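Final report, closing paragraph on structural work. Over the funding period we assembled a curated collection of sequence-structure pairs, and we close with a single example.
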Amino acid sequence: MRWAVVVAGLTALALPALGATPAAGADVVRAGADVPDVPVVPRQSVATDDFYTPPSPLPDGADGEVVRWREENRQLSARSYLVMYHSTNATGQDIAVTGRVLVPTTRWRGDGPRPIVSVASGTRGVGDTCAPSRWLDYERPFIEPMLLKGWAVVVTDYEGLGTPGLHTYVVGQSEGRAVIDMVRAATNVPATGLEAGGKVAFSGYSQGGGGAMWAGELQPDYAPELDLVGIAAGGVPADLTEVAEGLDGQVGFGFLLLAAYGLDAAYPELDLESYLNERGRRTYEAEQDACVDATLAHAFQDIGMFTTTNPLREPAWQARLAENRLGSNPPDVPVRLFHGTLDEIVAPGQARTLRNEYCAAGADVQWEWHVGEHVSTMVTGAPGVVAFLDGRFRERPFLLHC
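Its predicted structure, as stored:
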């Protein structure tokens, strides 16, 4: 029975909500021909939109500066804009990243400019057709309540989703900057009507929980001009080494494979292919365009089935994993963390450690356990996220758990 529940949960992660297909709209600073239809469920055979191909060479630009944008048909209860913008990757290089800006028709009734929530997406996979901006899927029900509050929502595709190159999956040093620069980009598109200087929050679950927390840790130095007021993050993979140990040989092993691909994409000197056996090489080549549903095929496998030597134990890999461990720079804004007690994908122990480290450093942390596994906790945690962010935007008191 537990296996059936887990399969159902992972399947829920892989399937989008119906009606999420983005349609072609007005093209501003167009990248190419008419926008092709995008299927509700992404397929590897679908041609990618020319919009996602950056100019070559990429023109110089500050972080968050817009390369191109276009308005599309409405998404949810909001005007929708597809944006390509400058960001900085894990090794300090200027890169092009894409994402979507959603500006609600609902009026913001609070003080100041309309606030912006930068939603860091959960796992989509590593292939270009999986990019969040191409199909609003299982997080759609969690974004709509934010729009109904009158908040703008921006969703980055991260590095290498949609744009060329393999996605740097769960590499926080890249993801955090993409989440931050998505806010800057949204205010750099005049048509959105969004103003720089308004209140900003970061939010995400699972991979997105890591992305949101990395944005929070990086923001004071990387984007001090942002009026960041809060971060809500659940199912956070704070310590990738401990998360990997919990996935090896277990139902979520496919996520460990994606993480190895992501680290190798971010840090080419890690040379993942040199550690792979024949099965590992075949799998790696076959899954360059894999979406999250590909993880189902790898349930209960282990890393020894794909490698001659476990790369995660090598000093070079350990050093890069350490660079992407959360906890050393606690945010100086209120944080809401939550996690499932039975989480079978992201180890609960390392999430508790992150909370303890933040609390010991004097951070303002609100913490909540949920009795449930990974997927159900995303659902049960959603109302608390909206309530917490609403309080931050309205400058209301909140309960501390440190």
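The first helix runs from residue 2 to 14. The first strand starts at residue 27 and ends at 28. We thank the funder for supporting this effort.
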